[in-house]
Amino acid sequence: MGGTHAVSMGDRGRIVVPVELRERLGLTAGSPLLLVETAMGIVVTTRERARDLVRRQLQGDDLVDELLDERRASAAEDDR
Questions:
Q1: How does DSSP assign 10-72, residue by residue?
Q2: Which residue among 35, 38, 59, 65 has its CA within the 20 to 30 Å range from the CA of 74?
Q3: What does the alpha-carbon distance between residue 39 and residue 18 come to, in Å, rounded to a whole number?
Q4: Which residues contact 5 (CB under 8 A, 6 or more apart)?
Q5: Angle, CA 28 vertex, CA 24 and CA 33 arms, to 5°
């Protein structure tokens, strides 16, 4: 997995996804793709991979549980 593939943009703004990537990712004509502009440049990805990435990034600490724990600890301290 991985690699760098040089592509050129055509006169109508089209790019061609190399066949080895299409086959590995299961892309066919009409497959929806996302172009994400980042500080590092443009990332081309599928909706599913973008969704999975966002889910992984959000799986960190549960902020609501942390806040509740802090409030409970503070309330317990006040009760003493």
A1: -TTS-----HHHHHHHT--TT--EEEEEETTEEEEEEHHHHHHHHHHHHTS--HHHHHHHHHH
A2: 59
A3: 24
A4: 18, 20, 21
A5: 85
